[in-house]
Design goal:
The structure holds 2 protein chains of 2 kinds. By secondary structure, chain A is mainly beta. Chain A is 7% helix and 40% strand. Chain A has 2 domains: 173 residues, 3 Solenoid (Pectate Lyase C-like); 149 residues, no CATH class. Chain A is built from 3 helices and 38 strands. Chain A has a 25-stranded parallel β-sheet that branches. Chain A is elongated and about 85 Å long. Chain B has one domain. In chain B, helix 3 packs antiparallel against helix 5 and helix 11 packs across helix 12. Chain B is globular. The two termini of chain B are 20 Å apart. The mean pLDDT of chain B is 89. Classes of the chains: A mainly beta, B mainly alpha. The interface between A and B is large, with 33 and 39 residues.
Chain lengths: 399, 255
C-alpha cells in the first residue's frame, strides 16, 4: 500500500497563524517546516523534539531573558537556520546554552546570530552535526562567569565551518569529539583559548584564524590531529601560546602561520609530530620544545624575526630539525646546492639562561650577552651539540 | 653668549672628523638597510652602533675638543663674559654639532626605512646618548688638567658604561640568582644610560618575547607611559648632573 507523506509549512509571527514558537511547535509534526518572522520572542526554554526545519525570516530574535536555556534540540534531523538567539541564563551547575543539542544527530545549525549567551552552541552527545556560518559573540570578562562559544562533548562527525566567535571563555571547545572537522572559523579575543581540544582523536582543523585569544590554542591528550593552514596570532603574555601541544602524538602541523605570539608553538610530551612548511614570524619564541618530546620532525619551515627561534629545557635531543630556513643563520653555500655548508645551531644559549632567570631578559642584546652568544655558537658548551639543522636553507621558502 | 655658541657650532661642523663621522654613520645605516631585507635585523645592527660607536665618538671627540680649546676658553674668561655662559656655549656647541651628525647619519635613513614609532625611539636613544657623553666628556676635562689623563678617564668611563657594566650586572645576577633580585636588577640597569637606551629599543623589536615571564616587570617599569617617562628622566639626569657638577668646578677653577 503506498503511503503519502505530506509535510506542511507553519508560519509564526505578528499577524501569522501562530504568535508564539511554542504553539507552532505543538502543532507541528515530523517533517514540517516552521517559518518564524522577525519579532521578539520571549518564551522561556523552547524545546524542539520533532524532526522539523526551523527557518528564521529576517533574523527573528529569541530571548532567554537571562534566565533560561534558549533553544534545546532533542530530536534528530533538525535544521535551525537564520535566528538571533540571545541572553541565555547563567548557571554554575547547569551549562545553559543559546542552542543546545541533547543526544541527537543529523542536525544543521546555520546562519544564526548568537549574542550574549552563557554557552552559545552546545553539542552534547551529537552525531553528524553541521554548525555553519554562525556569528557568535559574548562579552565575558572573567573565566568563571562565561561559557564556551561552541562547546562539543562526546560527539562524533561534527563539521564546524565558517563561524565567527568572539568574547567567550574558549572559542571552540572539544572534549571526546572524534572524526570532526573545524574549517574556516575565526576565533578572536576569547578570554582563555581560541580552541581547546582534549581527548579528541582523528580531527582536523584547517584554515582557521585564531587572533588575540588570552592563551592561544591548546591541544591536549589527543592522537592524530591534523592542522593545516591556520593562522595563530597575537597571543601575548606569560603562559600564552600560539599552540600549546600537550601529550599529543601522530599529528601533522603543516602550512600554518604563527605571527607575533609570545611562544608560537609549545610542545610538551609530544611525539611523532610532523611540523612542516609553517611560518614563524616575529614571535618571542618560535618553538619551545621540551626535552620529553620524541621523534618529531621539524622541516621546511621559515623562522623569521623571532627573538628566539627554538628553546628547550634539557640536553636530550630526540627530534630532527632539517632543511628549515633560519634568518639567524650566518653560514655560506660554496657548493651551490641551496643549503648552507655548515650546520645551524638554533638554540640560543641566552634563552637557556632566561629559562632559569627570567629577569636576565633585562640584559638581552647587550654587548656582553652578544659576546656570550657568539662564543657559544662557535664552541657549544652549554647547549647540546647535536641540537642542529644540518641543511639550513639560505633563502626563505615562499610560504 | 649666542655668538660664542654659534661660533663653536660652526667651528665643529667645519671639523673634518665630524664630517667623516657623519659620512661613516651614513654609510653604515644606508648599507645596513639596503643590504638587509629583514628590517628588525637591520635595527639590531644599528643598535650596536648606537650603543657603542656613537657614545665612543661623542665622548672622545668632545673631550679632545675641550682640551684643544683650553686657550680659547682662557681667552674668553679674560673677557667680560660670565663663566657659566662660556660653559653653556661649549656644551651646546658640542651637543648640537654631534647630534646634527647623528641625525643626518642615522636619523634620516632610520626614518625612511623603519616604523615611525620605532624610528622615533631609536633616534631619541641616540640623541640622548650623544648628549650624555658630551656632558660626561666635559666633566672629565674639568677633573683632569692633564690631557692624557682626561682622555683616558673618558675612555674608561665609556668602557665601563658600554661594556663592563653589563658584565658586572650579569655576574651579580648569577651570584644571587636564588634571591629575589628583580627590583635590584631593574634599578641597576636603570642607572646605566646605555642600558636604558638598549631596553627602550628592545621594547620595540622584541615586544612579543618581553610579554613573557618578565612581561609584568618590563611592562610596569619600562613599557608603560610612565615607564618611558621615567627612563627619559633617568637619562636627563645623566645629562644634567655631570653638566652642573662640571659647571660648578669650572666656575671656581683657577685656569
Amino acid at each position: 500500500m503506498p503511503t503519502v507523506v505530506i509535510s506542511k509549512n507553519i508560519h509564526v509571527g505578528p499577524g501569522k497563524e501562530h504568535r508564539s514558537i511554542r504553539a507552532a511547535l505543538l502543532s507541528a509534526k515530523d517533517g514540517d517546516t516552521i517559518f518564524v518572522y522577525h519579532s521578539l520572542y520571549k518564551e522561556g526554554n523552547i524545546i524542539i523534539n520533532k524532526k522539523i526545519t526551523m527557518i528564521g525570516v529576517d533574523y527573528p530574535v529569541i530571548d532567554g531573558d537571562k534566565k533560561f536555556e534558549v533553544v534545546s534540540i532533542k530530536s534528530d534531523n533538525v535544521i535551525f537556520r537564520g535566528f538571533q538567539v540571545q541572553n541565555s541564563g547563567y548557571g554554575s551547575l547547569n551549562d545553559l546554552g543559546g542552542i543546545k543539542v541533547y543526544d541527537a544527530g543529523n542536525i544543521i545549525i546555520e546562519n544564526n546570530i548568537l549574542e550574549n549567551n552563557f554557552f552559545s552552541i552546545y553539542i552534547n552527545f551529537g552525531k553528524n552535526i553541521l554548525i555553519k556560518n554562525n556569528k557568535i559573540r559574548a562579552y565575558g570578562i572573567e573565566e568563571q562567569q562565561i561559557g564556551n562559544g561552541i562547546h562539543c562533548w562526546k560527539s562524533d562527525s561534527l563539521q564546524i565551518i565558517g563561524n565567527h566567535i568572539q568574547g567567550h571563555r574558549d572559542g571552540i571547545y572539544f572534549e571526546f569529539v572524534t572524526h570532526s572537522i573545524i574549517w574556516r572559523n575565526v576565533s578572536r579575543f576569547n578570554i582563555r583559548y581560541g580552541l581547546h581540544f582534549m581527548f579528541s582523536n582523528d580531527d582536523a582543523y584547517i584554515n582557521n584564524v585564531f587572533d588575540g585569544n588570552g592563551a592561544g590554542v591548546a591541544v591536549m591528550y589527543t592522537k592524530k590531529v591534523t592542522m593545516y593552514n591556520n593562522t595563530f596570532k597575537n597571543s601575548t603574555g606569560d603562559a600564552s601560546y600560539g599552540i600549546l601541544l600537550k601529550e599529543i602524538s601522530d599529528a601533522e602541523i603543516v602550512g600554518n602561520r604563527f605571527l607575533s605570539n609570545t611562544s608560537a608553538l609549545f610542545l610538551e610530551g609530544a611525539n611523532r609530530i610532523m611540523i612542516k612548511k609553517n611560518v614563524f614570524l616575529n614571535n618571542g619564541w618560535g618553538l619551545k620544545i621540551q626535552a620529553n618530546c620524541m621523534e618529531n620532525v621539524i622541516s621546511q619551515n621559515n623562522f623569521i624575526g623571532n627573538t628566539f627561534d627554538v628553546s628547550t629545557n634539557g640536553s636530550l635531543v630526540l627530534n630532527k630539525f632539517d632543511k628549515n630556513y633560519w634568518d639567524k643563520y650566518e653560514g655560506y653555500d660554496l657548493d651551490k646546492d641551496m643549503y648552507g655548508d655548515i650546520p645551524f645551531h638554533p638554540l640560543n644559549v641566552y634563552s637557556f639562561i632566561i629559562e632559569n632567570n627570567p629577569i636576565a631578559m633585562l640584559l638581552f642584546r647587550s654587548f656582553m650577552v652578544t659576546l656570550l652568544e657568539k662564543t657559544e655558537k662557535l664552541i657549544p658548551s652549554i647547549t647540546p651539540e647535536d641540537f642542529r639543522d644540518d641543511h639550513p636553507l639560505l633563502k626563505a621558502y615562499s610560504l | 653668549m649666542k655668538g660664542i655658541t654659534t661660533f663653536i657650532i660652526k667651528d665643529i661642523l667645519k671639523n673634518r672628523i665630524v664630517i667623516l663621522y657623519t659620512l661613516i654613520l651614513c654609510g653604515f645605516s644606508w648599507s645596513i638597510f639596503s643590504l638587509e631585507d629583514n628590517v628588525s635585523k637591520g635595527i639590531l645592527s644599528l643598535l650596536n652602533i648606537i650603543l657603542l660607536i656613537v657614545p665612543l665618538v661623542s665622548v672622545i671627540f668632545a673631550n679632545i675638543y675641550m682640551y684643544n680649546s683650553t686657550e680659547f676658553i682662557e681667552l674668553l674668561v679674560s673677557q667680560p663674559v660670565k663663566r657659566s655662559s662660556i660653559w653653556y656655549a661649549m656644551f651646546t656647541g658640542l651637543a648640537v654639532a654631534l647630534n646634527a651628525a647623528f641625525l643626518i647619519g642615522i636619523g634620516i635613513p632610520v626614518l625612511l626605512f623603519i616604523h615611525p614609532l620605532t624610528a622615533l625611539v631609536v633616534i631619541l636613544a641616540g640623541v640622548l646618548l650623544t648628549t650624555i657623553f658630551v656632558s660626561v666628556a666635559m666633566l672629565c676635562f674639568i677633573l683632569m688638567r692633564d690631557k692624557a689623563k682626561g682622555i683616558g678617564l673618558s675612555i674608561m668611563l665609556w668602557l665601563f658604561l658600554s661594556l663592563m657594566y653589563d658584565g658586572l650586572v650579569l655576574f651579580f645576577m648569577f651570584q644571587f640568582a636564588d634571591y629575589p633580585i628583580e627590583k635590584i636588577m631593574v634599578l641597576l640597569t636603570a642607572i646605566n644610560p646605555v642600558d636604558l637606551a638598549r631596553i627602550q629599543v628592545l621594547l620595540q623589536i622584541d615586544v612579543a618575547a618581553l610579554m613573557g615571564y618578565t612581561g609584568a616587570i618590563f611592562k610596569k617599569l619600562f613599557g608603560t607611559q610612565t615607564g618611558y617617562f621615567t627612563s627619559f628622566i633617568f637619562m636627563l639626569v645623566w645629562i644634567v648632573v655631570p653638566y652642573f657638577f662640571s659647571l660648578r668646578l669650572f666656575k671656581n677653577k683657577d685656569l
